[in-house]
Amino acid sequence: MTRLSFLLSRRSTLGLAASFCCTFAACGGDTARSGPSNELLIVGYDREPDTMNRYATHILEDIESCVVEGLVTNDENMQIIPVLAAEIPTTENGGVVVRADGGMDVTWKLRPGVKWHDGVSHTSADVKFTVDAINKGDWKPESVDGFDRISSVDNPDSLTAIVHYKEVYAPYQLQFVRGTLPRHVLEGRDLNTANDYNRAPLGTGPYKVKEWKTGEYILLERAEGYWRGAEYPKIKQLLFRFLTNTTTRINLLKSGEVHMVALVAWDKVRELTAISGLRMNRVVGNGYEHVTLNQRHFTPFAEVKVRQALAHAVDRDLLVRTILDGQVAVVNGPIQPLSPAYEPKVPTYGFDPARARTLLAEAGWVPGADGIRAKNGQRLAFTLITQSGFAIRENVSQALQEAFRDVGAEMTVKLLDGTSISSVWFKGDFDAMLHWWQMGADPELTLFFAGDRMPPAGRNINYINDAELTSLLYRSDRTADVAQRNELLREAQRRIAALAPEIVLYNTAKIDAVPKALKGFTGNPTNAGPFWNVHLWEIGTP
Amino acid sequence: MKSGPRGGLLFLAALVVASLLAPYFAPFAADALDLADRRAAPSLVHWFGTDELGRDVLTRVLVGARVSLAIGVLSALMSAAIGVAVGAVAGYAGRRTDDALMRATDAMLAIPRLPLLMLGAAVLQPGVPMLILLVAAAGWMETARVVRAEVQSLSSLDFVQAARAIGANPVRVIARHIVPGIIPAATVATTLAIGRGILLESTMSFFGVGVQPPTASWGNMLYQAQTAMTSEPWLAIFPGLFIFATVLACNTVGDAIGSSPTQHQSV
Amino acid sequence: MRGLIVRRLLQSIPLLVLISVLVFALLQAVPGGPLSAYLENPNVRPQDIERLRAAMGLDRPLAEQYLSWLSAFVRGDWGYSFADGRPVFDRVLERVPATLELVGASTLLALCIALPVGVLASVHRLFDRISSFGAVAGISLPVFWFGLLLQLVFAITLGWLPSSGRTSFGVSSFADRVAHLILPVMVLAAVQAAAWSRYLRRAMRETVGRPFMNAARVRGVSERGVLLRHALPNALGPFITVVLLDAAMMASGAVVTESVFAWPGVGSLFTESLVKRDYPVLMAFLMFGAVAVMVLNLIADIAVRTIDPRARGAT
């Protein structure tokens, strides 16, 4: 035992260390957990932006949109509303004119009195500069869609920009949803390397970037002299903490270290509902989850009866009630009820395994010894791919597996990570895929269902090629009149439902966990995101 | 120290038997969904509770044990084989071969193992067999070093020198005189590698690049359970405990062999 | 000594080339590639993707891509991150302090545990049994699981400590930083302390049995003096080597710990870049890790030779 004596002094040292820990713990606990206030709102955000440049980023523009405003945005009802534009150009108000040569002129009237954060006026020259910068070709923004159809921009005065399109371009209203680039800052510069702008863009919005601490957070600070009036925005600072791990985000919400989280996974809502002081804000999203049936890769999917039978085999109500915790709703087509082009009266495929078996038998698929149906020596066995790391999809795909087995089809599930799965579907190298399409505010179907829009020309990965449908879709694209276009799109939806090129499951929901005390928050069904009206947000009494 | 390794061996044996026999005595099929009975807390019917799809967690832990153990054991055996081969050749052959092999070993050791494996798994999106290969490929270096040192010291012994001097076939010399001498060291390294392999699998699966569902492994069960830690802790606690207990058992056994009187000089 | 350093540095060149080829080859096999993130966006058309591919130089032959990468890397130009267009060197460098802080604190704590435990275990039977079990348990812990449990207990349930991050926003006190460090450091240190205490115990045991130790005892040096003044210094040489060599293990552990605790270090940069398939950053991480390990190896060699005179003659 004498050997132990020299170690005795250690005990007191350890005691000291322990008491230190407790002190620190108490301090850390207090400081990290102050609630939301009009001084500071902390947002747990699932990823760090690649850039704050709205045109270059390939993730959602939530943070950017607090700084850089578009000429228009989508409100909580998916309506397109003017922001930096004075009004939305339409054929009725003379803002849109179809030229005799088949082209189109769109006249944007800008809101007067808007200034960039540095005090310079926002003008039509900025609109022209934006178009030219994107069309010049040496910059790599994420997308140039629509811009490549613009031949030129005229500026008759500082608040009017006339955009000349080479052809009719139906989604023109959202052309400048990402805003404009400040000409006086960026002219003559290489936008790829203009990191001062790309990291802390000059905008006209309610906030400006105060600090971007890589790997940790972006801090936005109230911009003085905001054009809507000195009373906006009401919250002084917005802090976006980057928390890639879902568990971490939820834990920090629970411990009060973050105040809100945008886009909560549906199966996590249940867990968050229990947290006092939080409110789950739910808006129906503009997207739909479905099983793509690639009829080129797995030829039995080319038979409409097989597709319809599989659709009948799935108890979508049960899936929604259980795995999805009732957070979404069963839907029947690619265009969602919020859209003016939505068609409610389409053929539907309710849960009816008996009907499914009959359809398969009619198509000549008879059960083999193992219960799996076969026809001409081919078994009705295919592989479904879906994204890994997405608990709901992993669970739904296993439920689908059981449902299909019940009617005599064998489905193997293969999980692929997000980036690999994109390249696989882009090559059309799969049988079936469980995924969603998030649709733009403009109800475009052509890209997804026209017979000539299979990859790489588009996203028709069902590889459906129906002449009637294709013709309908292209006619809708070339119709500038909104009401007429919607009528064509409604007919297209009926046709799609009859063909059942894919198994439509349920819509998406955008659920944001926000403090009960946060007033003015509405959420948003489109990619405009929940921060679209951030200038109105205010912390009041819950 | 006697009870530790014995307990470890007993635990491992029981686990192997239970996982192999699971389909015969478990009251539930591993992939049977029961959407009406999801997230049930542990009870007499479901000892470890049920998961998000109403599957019995105990059954899945036992079935998952097959995958986790298979990866641990097979990768350890493979890396032992590679390690012994590389180490023996390097230790026995001349300077140049030795240099080349040891440089390769050093290179592999210099790259941080887990990031390398995660990257490899992200690139190759492996199934279970490929995953075993990957873990083995990242784990042979320590064995190679130990074996090389052992072979070098054995080679300098008189009877080996004598055998070489009379021109005996090197393969024969290695098989006859060298291999028996390195078995103890290789055994320790392999036992420890089993535990390490199980840990690596679970860590990779935890990051979503290991075993992919619906195949159950302890790692991906934890991965799926991590967001439900507060509401359904049993989903995370049981697979985690099994990983811990199994690795602990392997390490206790390895430790006991390694520190037994005949062996303690070798590592 | 200088000869040794020069020789080691020369030896490390082919090693680094080998590693770089390995890493580059691995990254080429990535399905999807860095541009696949763009495919998810319905607004990006194939022409856009081809345009970006050319802009990033991904359409050139592989050998050419490798050589241009390697020559630039040697000159300290590590390229630009695909994810945010900033220089890779900057991105890695800005994360280093956080990782050093975490690994440094963990190493200190692990040493504070391993040194006394290792010494005591070498002389005291019962303590040896208990600490041996503790040590084996420590190296058997699944790090991420242990981290989640600590988070659940100390941050979520008890609310004593922040669950993640490096600082609380707007608070720049020392106490706040320490509070954030405690949980991740406990996780990282647990495994290291376990491994190191085992190693030190063994090294001490071997030293204690040596003849010169008995000589000291015969000279009437107290048992405590024998241990601390004679056995410990002799055991420390190999111990320090092991501590330095374990740096690679710490890097692995840091990847896991940093992502569990959202610690903004190099490890979480790696996991973030892996998700985004940010090749230049991933390559830089692995190369950086390899270089760091080799440097530590060299330091370990030098340290051993400085501490333990008997090793000086050997290469």
Give an overview in words.
- The complex is a heterotrimer of chains A (542), B (267) and C (315).
- In chain A, 27% of the residues lie in helices and 22% in strands.
- By secondary structure, chain A is α+β, with helices and mostly antiparallel strands.
- In chain A, the strands form six sheets. Chain A has a five-stranded mixed beta sheet, covered by helices on one side. In chain A, strands 17-16-18-12-19 form a five-stranded mixed beta sheet. A four-stranded antiparallel beta sheet of chain A has the order 4-5-7-6, covered by helices on one side.
- Chain A is globular.
- The N terminus of chain A is likely disordered.
- By secondary structure, chain B is an all-alpha fold.
- Chain B has ten helices and no strands.
- In chain B, helix 2 runs antiparallel to helix 8, helix 8 packs parallel to helix 9 and helix 8 runs antiparallel to helix 10.
- The longest helix of chain B is centred in the last third of the chain and has 37 residues.
- The C terminus of chain B is likely disordered.
- Chain C is an all-alpha fold.
Number of strands of chain B: 0
Helix-strand sequence of chain B? HHHHHHHHHH
Continuous helix count of chain C: 13
Seen as an oligomer or otherwise, the chain set is heterotrimer
Q: What is the percent of helical residues of chain C?
A: over 70%
CA radius of gyration of chain B: 22 Å
Helix and strand content put the structural class of chain C at: mainly alpha
In which range does the helix fraction of chain B lie? over 70%
Beta-strand percent range of chain C? under 5%
Query: What's the rounded overall pLDDT mean of chain C?
Result: 79
| Biggest sheet architecture of chain B | none
Give average pLDDT of chain B, whole number. 82
User: Which pair of protein chains has the largest interface, and what are the residue counts?
Assistant: A-C, 75 and 71 residues
Q: Regions of chain C with pLDDT < 50 over 5+ consecutive residues?
A: none
What Rg of chain C is obtained from the alpha carbons, in whole angstroms? 24 Å
Order of helices and strands of chain C: HHHHHHHHHHHHH
What is the terminal separation of chain C in angstroms?
Answer: 10 Å
Secondary structure tally: strands of chain C:
0
Low-confidence stretches of chain B: 260-267
